[in-house]
Specification:
The chain is α/β, with parallel strands linked by helices and 588 residues long. Among the domains are: 20-109, Alpha-Beta Plaits (2-Layer Sandwich); 126-158 and 256-491 and 575-580, 3-Layer(aba) Sandwich (Rossmann fold), CATH 3.40.50.200. It contains 16 helices and 20 strands. It has helices spanning 13-16, 34-37, 61-72, 93-97, 131-138, 140-145, 192-201, 219-232, 259-271, 303-313, 392-396, 412-429, 435-444, 472-480, 499-503, 533-540, and strands at residues 26-29, 49-56, 75-80, 83-89, 102-108, 154-159, 172-177, 244-249, 284-289, 317-321, 343-349, 360-361, 376-379, 383-386, 401-402, 406-409, 447-448, 464-465, 509-511, 517-519. The strands form 5 sheets. Strands 6, 7, 8, 9, 10, 11, 12 and 13 form an 8-stranded mixed β-sheet that branches. α7 runs parallel beside α12 (412-429), α9 packs parallel to α10 (303-313) and α13 (435-444) packs antiparallel against α14. The protein is globular, with a radius of gyration of 23 Å. Residues 1-41, 110-119, 452-462, 480-488 and 543-588 have low confidence and may be disordered.
Length: 588
């Protein structure tokens, strides 16, 4: 098997940056010659990797996806029922088309070219998905007017990577790359992490940032920061555009990740939150984790939950997405969002109106249960943030593009990024607050979803919308006397449970020579080591490295069973948002 099939090294060039030959989608019926159906541009070289959407006959998807690697040499990047995204050499498209059960093949063309991108636009003041509108929706502009834009706060982003951009400049720091296909620059071949990082800390390079004021603010300081807000109205700015992003890549270019990688990434953040060898001013106070599984063992024993709780108790505000399976009847938040200590975030729907009084809880947002529900609801539909040109999201959903550098995304992941930015603003203003106090400040300042006049939420859950404009009183109270916190409470999250149960139904694995998927199951990490929760707990809770080699990315690329890793089923869905398959950009 050639090296291009291995999710090791930089092996996803087609997903990450390849430029295909046409300027639009070319739909190919199973009974039509692929080359003959193309209407624009020359055919790619037969050896060039391309991305295609494959539609299968009803009910034959699972059978077909197992055949793709064996009979075409392709890789199933993502799948949804009877449709899938496949990467393969262009010369093998006919073989793919001829597989029993294939009804249609759609070639994704050179939409990765930045100079040939769609020209969708946004009018920030009237577009409820623009980050300027979101910032004003939640009251972040009030912090901006006081000169607090996240300065001095570093936000760790455990995700699919972050693509370098002028919108970050020198405010992007790279931690370890623990993904299956680490790159030298921890780039983002999937497009998820870049989008969220932009929501938190992106900033147009031309945006003029005044000097941080020295209290008390003078009239000229107030005028300068109001001018900053006004300038941001026509430019791009995240919620905390003065904060920095620490990129800890765990998701591969196709979005696949194992829970053991995420635990290792969280541990790295805890152990290096103030590591001056990385940066003299490193100060990780917020961890954005837009990740979740459907595991449901007790939060007292789950190792993933123990990892996020450990970060919390080491002074890091952990913001976790609630999950995108609302309305499915699952009845609980994703793992680790159901841990009561972290900030679990659901998403609101603007309903196409920039007035926050019209916001409702998004139908895809996981509401949890009566015993554990999202702590906050934040804007999460059609948010405009940074694109990763050439990524899976970018090439698969071209209609989501906004101009040359931006992209619309929807999901509780986006909502979590909004709250991470809000937490950075609070800590920029009051850096001495503990995670529990930040949570108390944010939730104390929240308002009923849909505004004071909105009807009662039919779920009868007390789901609150984020409103930073109402946090001033809570911060003042925190200054006068320390808020009641859980910091001295007994540690409930022991982490001595099952790694397999933490995965739930999300498994990575490989296709063997017979096209049969072989998942990684049981109490074993992706490096092939046996998992011992008790050993991990002892080391992690003292902030020591539980496996020194865990942070050497080469150990994550060892051949488990000497085979190739692939995404299977929903294995990549833990990094996949509703935006990548919503009614707006539905591809399946």
């Amino acid at each position: 098997m050639s090296s291009r099939h291995l999710l090791r090294g930089r092996v996803r060039p087609a997903v990450a940056a390849v430029a295909l030959a046409a300027a639009a989608l070319s739909t190919v019926a199973a009974t039509t010659s692929t080359a003959g159906a193309r209407t624009a541009g020359a055919d790619p070289d037969p050896t060039q990797e391309v991305n295609v959407r494959v539609d299968a006959a009803k009910g034959r998807g699972d059978e077909l996806w197992a055949r793709v690697p064996r009979f075409t040499g392709g890789i199933v990047i993502d799948m949804h029922g009877d449709s899938a995204l496949v990467s393969l050499e262009y010369g093998h498209i006919d073989e793919l088309r001829d597989l029993p059960g294939v009804t249609k093949v759609t070639l994704l063309s050179d939409l990765a070219h930045e100079d040939n991108r769609s020209s969708g636009e946004t009018d920030q003041p009237t577009d409820p998905g623009s980050l300027w509108s979101v910032a004003h929706n939640i009251g972040a502009d009030r912090y901006w007017h006081e000169g607090h834009i996240g300065q001095g706060v570093d936000v760790a982003m455990i995700d699919t990577g972050v693509k370098p951009s002028s919108a970050f400049g020198n405010r992007l720091l790279n931690g370890p790359d623990l993904s299956f296909d680490p790159a030298a620059d921890s780039d983002d071949g999937y497009g998820h992490g870049t989008h969220l990082a932009g929501i938190v800390a992106g900033r147009d390079a031309s945006l003029n940032v005044p000097q941080t004021p020295v209290p008390p603010m003078k009239p000229q300081d107030k005028a300068a920061w109001k001018a900053f807000d006004n300038d941001a109205k026509t430019k791009f700015a995240g919620i905390a555009p003065g904060s920095r992003i620490v990129n800890v890549r765990a998701g591969a270019d196709n979005g696949v990740v194992d829970v053991s990688q995420v635990i290792a990434a969280i541990d790295w953040v805890v152990q290096h939150k103030n590591d001056t060898s990385i940066d003299p001013n490193l100060n990780i106070r917020v961890l954005n984790l837009a990740y979740g599984t459907d595991g449901k063992q007790s939060f007292r024993s789950d190792p993933l939950i123990a990892a996020v709780a450990n970060a919390w108790r080491h002074g890091i505000v952990v913001v976790v997405s609630a999950g995108n399976d609302g309305g499915t009847g699952r009845g609980m938040l994703d793992n680790p969002a159901y841990d009561p200590i972290v900030l679990a975030v659901g998403a609101s729907d603007s309903n196409g109106n920039s007035a926050k009084e019209n916001d409702t809880i998004a139908d895809f947002s996981n509401n949890g249960s009566t015993t554990r529900q999202p702590d906050l609801i934040a804007p999460g539909t059609s948010l405009v943030s940074l694109a990763a040109p050439g990524s899976v999201a970018d090439t698969t959903f071209p209609n989501a593009r906004v101009g040359a550098t931006l992209f619309r995304g929807t999901g509780t992941s986006q909502a979590a990024a909004v709250v991470s930015g809000a937490a950075a603003l609070v800590l920029s203003k009051r850096p001495n607050l503990t995670p529990d106090e930040v949570k108390a400040v944010l939730t104390a300042g929240s308002a009923k979803i849909g505004g004071s006049g909105a009807p009662e939420n039919p779920t009868k859950l007390k789901l609150e919308a984020l409103d930073l404009g109402r946090t001033a009183a809570a911060i003042s109270q925190a200054d006068k006397h320390r808020l009641k916190t859980q910091d001295s409470a007994p540690v409930l999250e022991q982490g001595d449970g099952s790694l397999e149960l933490a995965r739930g139904s999300y498994h990575v694995g490989y296709y063997d020579e017979n096209g049969v998927f072989q998942p990684l199951v049981g109490e074993m990490t992706v490096s092939g080591d046996d998992w011992n929760g008790s050993t991990w707990r002892t080391a992690a809770f003292t902030s020591s490295t539980w496996r020194n080699e865990v942070f050497d990315s080469s150990t994550w690329r060892g051949d488990w069973a000497g085979s190739t890793w692939h995404v299977f089923g929903w294995a990549g869905s833990t990094w996949r948002d509703v935006s990548w398959s919503s009614s707006t950009w539905r591809w399946a």
